[in-house]
Amino acid sequence: MNHEIQTMKLAVTLLSCSVVLAKVPHKVDDLEEMDEDERKQFDDDIFTFNEDGEEWDAWEELSEDQMKNRLTKIFDRIDSNKDGNLDRDEVVDHTYKALFNMDEQEAEAEFVEADVDANYQVTWSEFVEEFYGLSPDDEANILAMDTDTGVEFNHMYSRDQARFQAADNDRDGKLTLVEYKRFKNPLQSKDLLDLAIEWALRSADKNKDKKISFEEYMSDFREDPGSNLEHYGEEFTDQEEQRFQEDLDLDGDGFIAGDELKYWLGPDNIAIAIEESDHIFDSVDSDEDNLITIHEMLEGFQTFIDSDVTEFGGQLRHIKDEL
């Protein structure tokens, strides 16, 4: 295989996303030769250009007045019915979209990191090495790695692989950027979610009743660890039983079934958006009328800056100050 890598200039203008990489290495050696500070700067710079190729302002360096000025414009965007107030539904809706935007940005950054041969595709092995830090040899001998990383991969394997297979639209065993974003965010599409659940159930649902008992949940490993390995002991079982009961089996019937299966595959952004909205209202709705005015937003501007609602201030980069 020829290891001279083509230029990794990745202009991401696909579907709903339009981002230009600020600085990209031209071959794998460029990445390997970066020192820690240079690599961190590369990671930080990935999303610092807008769709016109113009560098966004570093919002962290804005004055308080500039932040408030830009938040005023974000207020107008959130206020979809234009009544001059933000209700809970408007904040939830805006936060839900912001969460998916952050998920997409994270997926794009991961894609660049994982695509080490710069062929614009990510294989399953590349994903495992990037996300779990496991080489193909480690993946093939997972029980020899009696470590937290090995245990996590062993127990997440079928769910991760199910999402990977569902997102691989052309079934070539490799994900393009569009497919990779679908893989990391299967809950965005009901069709993709249903397919990912179908793939995952093939591995875990031993009796084919389309639901997961705790016994099935605990036996869903890439390789059955048995009972003689340290990291699969009583503490591991107790932690997983608590997760099963508190985070997955929401109705307490002893099974992960129906809508609960999506939590098994990944977090539900709607639930996160509602929780974040509740936090915002608890913090800044000073008159407790379940509406946020522009005055209340600006009084509690730091709460908005530090929240998912504004992508932790990232949305301020998109807004220009009026002269």
UniProtKB/TrEMBL annotation:
SMART domains: EFh. Residues 1-22 form the signal peptide. Residues 66-101, 192-227, 272-307 form the EF-hand domain. Gene3D superfamilies: EF-hand. Pfam families: EF-hand_7 (PF13499). InterPro entries: EF-hand-dom_pair, EF_Hand_1_Ca_BS, EF_hand_dom. Keywords: Calcium, Metal-binding, Repeat, Signal. Belongs to the CREC family. This is Oidioi.mRNA.OKI2018_I69.chr2.g5819.t1.cds. It comes from Oikopleura dioica (Tunicate).
